[in-house]
Every structure is written in C-alpha cells, then in structure tokens.
Amino acid sequence: MHKPLPQIRLAELLGALSHALDLTEGQPRGHCIRCCWIGTQVGLKLKLWPDDLSELYYTLLLKDLGCSSNAARICQLYLADDIGFKRDFKLIDGSLPQALRFVLGHTGLEAGLAERFRAIIGILKNGGQISRELIEARCHRGAEIAARMRFSKTVCDAIQNLDEHWDGSGKPEGLAGKTIPLFSQIALLAQVVDVFNVSNGPAAAVREIRNREGTWFDPLIVEAFSELQSEPDFWEILQEEDLPAVVLHLEPAKAKRWVDEDYLDEIATAFAQVIDAKSSFTRGHSERVAIFTDMIAEEMGFSPARRRWLGRGALLHDIGKLAISSSILDKNGKLTDQEFAVIKSHPVHSENILASISVFADLAPVAGGHHERLDGKGYPRGLKGDQINLETRIVTTADIFDALTADRPYRAAMPVSRAYAIMTKDLGTAIDPACFAALQAALARAEAAEAA
C-alpha cells in the first residue's frame, strides 16, 4: 500500500542502489560504497574545496551507471559470461602480454573449438577497436544517465572519462595528462584499489597503484594515496560493516540533496534504463511495463498517488536481472535446467535490493512476486491465490503483455490479438482475469482516443 514519501537523502538512495551496479560488474557487495570512501579520502588529502568534494562524491557512487550497456556485446564477442569477464578484466593492467593471456583464457571456453578459434582470431585482429567500442558504450551511457538524474556536467564528464589513462593509453578518446578530469582519475584509482584489495589484500592494492604511476595515474594522486594508505586506520575502516553509514556522513553538509516525489520518479526511470540495457532484447521493457501497469491501475480505480507508487515498482521490478549474465538473458535457444534456475533467481535479487532501500522497501514484494502464478506454479516461492497481492498481479499482467508484444531472442514480436489469445488461455492460472480485463479496456480506450 502506498505511504507518504519519507524524507530521504539522495546520497542514501544512490548508495543503496549502487549495490545493483556492483552485481552487474561482478564485484562484491559494497564496491561502489568502498570506492566512494577511498576516493573521497584522496580528495580530502588533495585539499579539494567542499563543492568539489560533493561532485567527486557523486561521481564515485555513480561511476558504474553505464556498466550494463556493454554486457550483451561482451557475450557476443567473447562468447563469455559478461559478469565474470568484467570481474576478471579489472585484475589486469591492460599490457599486451596480460591482455593476450586474458583473451585466450576468457574467450569461448564453453563454445565449440572452431567457434572459439574464430572468436579469438577476430578479437586479436580488432582488439583495439573492440576495447574502444565497449568502453565508449559503457562510459557514454553512464554519462547520459547521470545527466538525466540531474547531475552536473562535471560529474557526467568524470563518468564519461573514467577509463582514460594519464599517459594517453586509455579509452575511448586517448586523453592524457591534465586533459583527463581529476575526478575520473580519482575514481579509477579508487576502483583499482578496491578490486585488488578485495582480491589479494592491501599490499597488492598498493603495489598495483605504484606500478601504474605515470602510466594510468597522475603521480600527484598516487602520492596522495600513498600517504593516505599508510595511516593506521585506513584499511580497517574499509572492512567495517557500517561503512555505508560512514560514507553517507562524508557528503559535505552544505551540499546535501534531498529527494522529492518528482526526483524519485526520475531516479527510478534512470535505473530502469540501466536494467533494460543489460539485454539487447529488453530495451524499453521496464518503462513499457510501467505504462501498462499504470493503465491497468487507473482502470481499476487506483488513486493517482497509489498509481505513482506502483509505477516505481514496475520500473524496478527487473532490477535483479543485473545479477544475471547476458549470455543467459539473450540465449537464442532453450535454457538448460541450470540456466533456468539462474533466471528464476532474478526476482529474489530484485526483492533483496529494493528491501534494503527504505523508500522502495514496500515495493519489494511486488518485484519479488512478479513471476508467481495464481495456481502456485510460478517462482521463486510458488505463491498461489490470495498470497499474491493485487499490485503484484497488475505488474505480472503488464509484464506478460509486454513480453509477448516485444521482440525476444527466440521469436519476433506478436500482434496484440495474438497476445490476447495466449493470455486468455492463462486466465485464472497465471493471470488475474480482472487485471487482464482492465488491460484490454484501457488499451481499447487509448486506441479509440487516438483514432478520434
């Protein structure tokens, strides 16, 4: 049930949502939070002004906003699990020997020998272009979404240039030296520190940063980090369970930002775009589900406030898909039992993510239940009948309708009449008849209005 919006800080909301970005990058929970703490400490060591620290703070929390946009392409090019690929790629320095070993060790391991050989040859021939394409998609998309979320050009530019290197060897533009935004340099350094610390410990993280001094990183930033990491409590704080609360308090007091109803809608829409970019076949899916959800809810007499609340749940119902490899989401063929088990986990991820965010917590059951069926044969919990609330039934109806009328890896989109015929067969078992009737009535009314 809809409740009045509690007062919520933007930093708290984005910190919680950043856990979804950690999933799609294959990083342990809290990666963006830890990077925010590391990078902010570097900024303090560099004596940045409070306004600059605020811009850096949001850059660090949002650095991976575009991370889902190249997932499908990675699977296509490397015949690999994009999540594991991204996780392991962060552990190499990009030098030719390491890059070659990485390609050989991560390309088409589950494909046939001939297919794997063709993929490797194609990558070796066009490696630079492919790398630039993947990074450009990620960084540009992240900057676009940040702009839609009302962040400044400074933050957007920092996200867009995250993978540029001090010596000009980075991507996608090959910027060098002071032409690279300072916040991009700090965010990339924080990322490398966290990845290597989590994987191999503090000594490995320090060694990696020093090895990349003058190539990846400005020596002045490396010097600031070197001083910082030698402080007695630096590494201990990174291990603290209450680090999210610590990071929340790092936001400069004069720059605190609060979220109202309109801004919350924009943030939910922006994250819907992050979710749908994960698969080449789901672009726009979450926003369409939100539209169909709203049409059904209006037809069923929901108040405007309740419709608005439910629309956010529809926008975010698939956020758990960020934890699923695009090699499974986009598979052109029947899923194995193991792959289907992975697919069935995505509502659980959705529910867990939303349950951890105070302003979305009451929507968690809606997201977690959108694949349940009235006859108890759905997933993940096998709920049935009245165990599935009306709001969830509405989102389920909207989700099924959009899935049938949109292109999928295994079939083309079908006309509305055909979708109706298929859905009619599932009334009372998978689909609530009242929700289906409301969908038909709302679409008929919209069609009549358009024809008038």
What does this molecule look like?
By secondary structure, the chain is an all-alpha fold. It has two domains: 10-69 and 133-255, Hypothetical protein af1432; 261-451, Hypothetical protein af1432, CATH 1.10.3210.10. The protein is built from 24 helices and no strands. Helix 2 (31-45) crosses helix 10 (182-200), helix 2 crosses helix 14 and helix 16 crosses helix 24. The chain is globular, with a radius of gyration of 23 Å.
Brief write-up:
The protein has 452 residues and is mainly α. It is built from 24 helices and no strands. The mean pLDDT is 91.
Oligomer: single chain
Strand content: under 5%
Unreliable spans? none
Mean pLDDT: 91
List the helices and strands and how they pair.
Blueprint: H1 10-24, H2 31-45, H3 50-62, H4 71-78, H5 82-89, H6 96-106, H7 113-125, H8 127-148, H9 153-160, H10 182-200, H11 202-211, H12 219-229, H13 234-238, H14 243-250, H15 261-276, H16 285-299, H17 304-316, H18 326-329, H19 337-343, H20 346-355, H21 364-368, H22 390-405, H23 416-425, H24 433-451
Helix pairs in contact: 2-3, 2-10, 2-14, 3-9, 3-10, 8-9, 9-10, 10-11, 15-17, 16-17, 16-22, 16-24, 22-23
